[in-house]
Design a protein that fits this description.
Keywords: TPR repeat
Number of helices: 7
Distance between the termini: 20 Å
CATH architecture of the largest domain: Beta Barrel
Protein name: Tetratricopeptide repeat domain 5
Helix content: 40-55%
Shape: globular
CATH class of the largest domain: Mainly Beta
CATH topology of the largest domain: OB fold (Dihydrolipoamide Acetyltransferase, E2P)
InterPro entries: TPR-like_helical_dom_sf (IPR011990), TPR_rpt (IPR019734), TTC5_OB_sf (IPR038645)
C-alpha cells in the first residue's frame, strides 16, 4: 500500500494539475485507512487530496462521488449530499446508485432535526431527564478535560460507517458522536458516554437547500461534532466491549 501511495504522489509531483493524480492519492490514503484503522486525521488528509482533485476538474462525476464518500465518513453529511447529487447530475446513467447515497445522508440530518424539534417541544420532560443524567455523571468525572454526554438516538443507518450517535450534554447542547468500526447495536438511548476532550471536536452547522433531485425541504441544524477514539471511550463507566466491534466497509471506487 505504501508503494501505491508513493506512486500516486509521484504522479502529483509530475503533474500537479492532474485531477486523476490527486484522486489516486486520496483513494490510496482511504484504502490505507481501511487496513490500518479509520481515523479523523487520516480522513482529513484524504479529503484534502480529493478537494484538490475537484478543484482541478469539477466536471468529473467519479471525483464528486468519491468526495461524497469521504464527506460521509467524516460526518459532513450536508457536503456529502451535495457531492453525490452533483455526481448524479453529471452522469445519472452510470451512477444510478448515487441518488440512494444522497438520500441516505440527507435522512441522517432529517432525523437529527426532527429529534431536536421533538425534544424541545413535546419531549421536554425527556430532555430534562437526559440532561439531569449527564449532570449527575459529571460530578464523578476524573477532571475538567473529560467530556460527558448521553445518547439521545442512533441516527445512522445499520449499514453505514461511522456509527453516528446523537447526543446531548448537561447544557442542552446537541451533538453528533462518530465511532468507526463499531456495530449498530453496540450502544443505546440513555447510555452515558465519557471521553477525553480533544481538538477533534467543534461546532458544525449543517445546511441543505431544497433540491429538485430529492424534493426535500431545506435543512439547517447546528450541533457539536465529536470524533472519539474507541480505546478511550467509556460507556456507563466501562470500556467498549470487544463484541461491539464491526468490520469497516467503505463504498468507494475509482472508475475507469
Amino acid at each position: 500500500m505504501q508503494n501505491a501511495l508513493e506512486k500516486a504522489r509521484e504522479a502529483v509531483r509530475t503533474d500537479v494539475t492532474s485531477a486523476d493524480a490527486w484522486n489516486a492519492v486520496a483513494l490510496t490514503l482511504l484504502a490505507q485507512l481501511t487496513l490500518d484503522g479509520m481515523s479523523y486525521t487520516g480522513l482529513r488528509k484524504a479529503m484534502a487530496a480529493m478537494q484538490q482533485a475537484v478543484d482541478k476538474d469539477k466536471s468529473d462525476p467519479d471525483i464528486h462521488y468519491n468526495k461524497g464518500v469521504l464527506g460521509s465518513l467524516m460526518g459532513s453529511f450536508d457536503e456529502a449530499v451535495r457531492d453525490f447529487a452533483r455526481a448524479y447530475e453529471l452522469d445519472n446513467h452510470r451512477q444510478k446508485g448515487t441518488r440512494r447515497l444522497c438520500e441516505d445522508n440527507l435522512v441522517i440530518l432529517q432525523r437529527a432535526q426532527t429529534r431536536i424539534k421533538n425534544l424541545n417541544s413535546i419531549g421536554r420532560s425527556e430532555l430534562k431527564k437526559l440532561c439531569g443524567t449527564v449532570k449527575k455523571e459529571e460530578a464523578h468525572l476524573p477532571g475538567a478535560q473529560t467530556q460527558c454526554v448521553v445518547v439521545v438516538d442512533t441516527i445512522s443507518d445499520q449499514t453505514m460507517q461511522p456509527l453516528t450517535l446523537m447526543t446531548i450534554d448537561s447544557h442542552e447542547s446537541f451533538g453528533l458522536l462518530f465511532l468507526y468500526g463499531i456495530s449498530f447495536s453496540a450502544l443505546k438511548i440513555g447510555d452515558v458516554l465519557s471521553f477525553p476532550l480533544s481538538e477533534k471536536q467543534g461546532d458544525a452547522v449543517y445546511h441543505v437547500d431544497r433540491m429538485e433531485l430529492l424534493g426535500n425541504e431545506p435543512i439547517e441544524v447546528s450541533m457539536k461534532k465529536y470524533f472519539v477514539n474507541n480505546e478511550t471511550l467509556l460507556v456507563n463507566h466501562k470500556p467498549l466491549s470487544p463484541s461491539a466491534k464491526a468490520s469497516l466497509q467503505v463504498s468507494s471506487r475509482l472508475f475507469a
